[in-house]
């Protein structure tokens, strides 16, 4: 297409107007600038039209009750991405047909390709999010521990892959040699592996945790000296909300090899175990009477599991006569374990006072003898 597209034979355009349109101010003829502005306005109009049209179509479709990938995907803000993808494709077609100057056309096409790539990545990101929501729904439906923890982890992995692949595609549109980058990453893989030993160990620790399922998100656990509620199981670490309300991060490699005490799995049954030490001034009759009264008291408590009650003479220690008290009791979800433990301890103190028994504490008796010295 020649720059001088308007001929003098065109009766509907005056000679002066033809001269103005064919005149070149910057880079190309004025009529091409007008055509480019018109094409831009047309693309923007189509972008807005398609976005509004898709939004109205989505409003007419009831997706709230469906639990499928398509429903979760359509519930995202996809109309913006789809409208820009269509606009970028139309823009590239118009730019190529306008036969603009090569360098100018090249830069415009790069801009449109980047716009296209960004919104394709955005739609892929929404698709990953929809996949995560679907996995989470299926996990809750099947009520599996591994599914509850795998859903957020799988979503993060999918989103990470989308961002990495999308970034490489966008870099390629800018003219970057992506193959060279990947080759460089391959050569540096060995060095990276040595530098990322802990990361690899944590990743395999994550896999072990998910497959073995020693706990799930929301469980009350104790790992090493950390006790609290599991908040999240990530790629590298497990986050636990401690009893002091701080957030403790433990590497998954550590969690996988340490002893995990899952307190939630007590299933509402707690253990009471105390060794009571009484002074040696207590008679066998007093100790036997106290043991019988405490045993009877526990047998009357409906909360106590009757087949696991033990109140017995345990040990003759250095400073005390020890009685072992061991039983299990039921705690309802709305009850406080600490308050119930306090009640049992107070009951023991009252019964010991009624039996006139004194609790012992470490003591030493020093005996001094006076010797007569003979001259």
What would your notes on this structure say?
Mean pLDDT is 78; it is low at 7-11. This protein has helices spanning 15-22, 30-60, 69-74, 78-98, 102-142, 145-173, 178-187, 189-195, 197-212, 252-257, 284-299, 337-354, and strands at residues 24-26, 28-29, 220-223, 226-233, 237-242, 247-251, 260-262, 269-278, 310-316, 321-330. With 375 residues, it is of the alpha+beta class. The chain is built from twelve helices and ten strands.
- Large-scale geometry: elongated
Question: Whole-number average pLDDT?
Answer: 78
User: Structural class of the secondary structure composition?
Assistant: alpha+beta
Overall tally of structural domains: 3
Strand content: 15-25%
Stretches where pLDDT is under 50 for at least 5 consecutive residues are: 7-11
H/I helix tally:
12
Strand order of the largest sheet: 6-5-4-3-7
User: Radius of gyration in whole Å, from Cα?
Assistant: 39 Å
Number of beta strands = 10
